[in-house]
Specification:
CATH architecture of the largest domain: 2-Layer Sandwich
Shape: globular
Structural class: alpha/beta
Helix content: 25-40%
CATH class of the largest domain: Alpha Beta
Number of helices: 8
Order of helices and strands: EEEHEHEHEEEEHHHEHEH
Largest sheet: 6 strands, mixed
Radius of gyration: 19 Å
Number of strands: 11
CATH superfamily of the largest domain: ATPase, nucleotide binding domain
Number of domains: 2
Length: about 240
Amino acid sequence: MLTEILINIGNTHAQFAVFDGKSVRLTETIPTSQIAVPASIISTLSKNKDVRIFVASVVPKINEAILQSWQGREITFLKWEMLKKVDFSKVDVSTVGADRLANISAAVATLKLPAIIVDCGTAITTEVIDEENRFLGGAIIPGRRLWRKALNSHTGQLPEIELSESETKAVGTTTLEALSVMDCAVIGAVERIIAKTTEKVKGASVYFTGGDAPFFSKSLDGKLLPENFTLVGLAEVVNQIR
């Protein structure tokens, strides 16, 4: 029997899953821009009309919109106070995004600690958790698509190029090839962040999650996490607060 619908709302995509108290099953992924519609239009919601909804969202405008669109549904938004097994005393937790909170929850529940979670999406974030379940903080930098959009929007002639599946050569012979070299730069940035973090947190294992994680895991040392990792963190919080 289902106990909860879990939703991870990112800047670009929203993941839906069903949770039966033990296992998390990813059911659908849609563009975040399309989520603020009546619940009857979204398959996961329409098939589970009376099930409670638990949400991790980094888009406040979407939160207000779904509350209006899904009136009558029981909706709970993830907050840091719900993470009963995590020590936040080392950070200013008031501004930590819900996606990062869910990643921290999943790390404490399922991974070998200390750990560095690298979440590769619209933004690239790191979450650092030590062996005593303390969240130590992390980093936030633009993801690959934002690098492309920034060059396109702030120059007169440079186009916004598509994402590549693997790192390109370092010397481009055309403008498009030269632009693709930015992937070398963003890989280097993440590599440097990981290196500086492991200097501080000795023995930390590195893990990659998020939609762009496969790209980075091809070039950097670390383990690629399951697609539903952030949702697993949500489920862990559900079990703590119910």
